[in-house]
Amino acid sequence: MQNDKPTVLIVDDEIDIREPLCDYLQLNGFNTLDAENSESAEKLLDTHPIDLIVLDIMMPGESGLDLCKRLSQTRKVPIILLTALTDDTDRIVGLELGADDYLGKPFNPRELIARIRSVLRRSSLPHEPADSKLYKFEDWHLDNDLGEVIRNNGTVVMLSTGELKLLKVFVQNPNKILSRDQLISLTQGRDSFPYERSIDNMISRLRKKIEPDISKPKYILTVWGGGYKFLFKEKS
User: Fold this and answer.
1) Is the per-residue pLDDT at 47 higher than 90?
2) Is the dihedral of CA 173, 179, 117, 53 positive or negative?
3) Which of 25, 45, 63, 174 is deepest in the core (most CB within 10 A)?
């Protein structure tokens, strides 16, 4: 039906951005779909296989950040945010909500193509056989195949895409001190996730979801001056 080209969904309320961008992506080896708002985007996601979403933050009605948060919790689709915002805090929030990358407006379409290809390469890595493993730490286990973190009593805790990536990095590097710079590179790539504070914020959010007492973490330990260390017992 759509051959083997990746399908990119462009979500932007400005038709003068959507249509030329769709044309440019098609000329560079992608299938494209486009939507003017969150509602239209979700209808397309329900009816078409989508490999990646390019999502504008500033849209009428539901914002791109709100849609990004919901999609990161319910669908395994990589997201690149487009933003005209100049405040780094807003960009950090988008990454913490589960976006895989962002690009400021106005942007060079060639740079967007490069970022799309980079994100698609990274998003394919967890599906490699080497990553198919079950990890256990105390009352929890992480199933890389299912992409879930589950308590022993069967409770499934929802993680954003970014939180899940971070937890995978930790369980695959047990009892090692990982610097913020290493965590940035291992989860997103230095070029697309350059803010160290965002790692601290995401770790805080992850602790709230898995630690029995966030004031005394037992899994994700802070190593002063060094970064973080993850302690866990692998399931036998």
Assistant:
1) yes
2) positive
3) 25
Q: First CA to last CA across the chain, in angstroms?
A: 44
Q: How far, in Å, CA of 180 to CA of 194, rounded? A: 10
Kindly state the helix (H) or strand (E) to which residue 137 belongs, with its residue range: strand 134-137
Q: pTM higher than 0.70 for the full model?
A: no
Say what percent of the chain tops pLDDT 90.
29
Q: List Cα–Cα distances, 155 to 106, 142, 209, in angstroms.
A: 44, 12, 12
Length of the chain: 236
Greater model confidence, 180 or 190: 180
Q: How confident is the model at residue 106 (pLDDT cuts 50, 70, 90)?
A: confident
What pLDDT is attached to residue 49? 92
- Which residue in 195, 178, 197 sits closest to 186, CA to CA? 178
Residue with structure tokens 């866990």?
232
Q: Which residues of 129-159 are buried (b: 16+ CB within 10 A; e: fewer)?
A: eeeeeebbbeebbbebeeeebbeeeeeeeeb
Peptide bond into 129 cis (omega under 30): no
Q: How far apart are CA 37 and CA 78, in angstroms?
A: 18
